[in-house]
Design a protein that fits this description.
Blueprint lengths: L12 H12 L19 E2 L1 H17 L1 H8 L6 H15 L2 E2 L15
Parallel strand pairs: 1-2
């Protein structure tokens, strides 16, 4: 039987975090090969979803000492350190960002 849900009691914290990250882009966790290079470029999310996930991850790391132990080898992380860790996780492994029309860089005109 294939397990289709995650819980902190039975899974490692990284799986719980990645599964939740998938929820933000409506991706199926089971369809993504996390061992491939650049797996995080498969989906895109907007700034609002990224910030919401970062806040969730900060609270997750801060509130669950076993997550701190598994991911960072300590159980005494202050909230600020958890925020920094969440930001670094999103920077390294977060989905690619959507580019809004305001953020698009116009390419220079082609020369004849």
């Amino acid at each position: 039987m294939i397990k289709k849900t995650f819980s902190v009691a039975t899974d490692n914290h990284l799986n719980v975090i990645l599964a939740n990250m998938c929820r933000y882009v409506e991706a199926n966790y089971w369809d993504i090969d996390f061992s491939k290079d650049n797996w995080y470029q498969t989906y895109r999310w907007g700034e609002e979803n990224e910030q919401h996930f970062k806040k969730w991850l900060t609270n997750y790391i801060y509130g669950i000492r076993s997550a701190q132990r598994e991911l960072y080898g300590t159980t005494t992380m202050r909230k600020k350190k958890c925020e920094e860790a969440a930001s670094m996780f999103v920077f390294n492994y977060g989905w690619s960002r959507l580019i809004s029309d305001r953020q698009r860089v116009k390419s220079p005109p082609r020369l004849p």
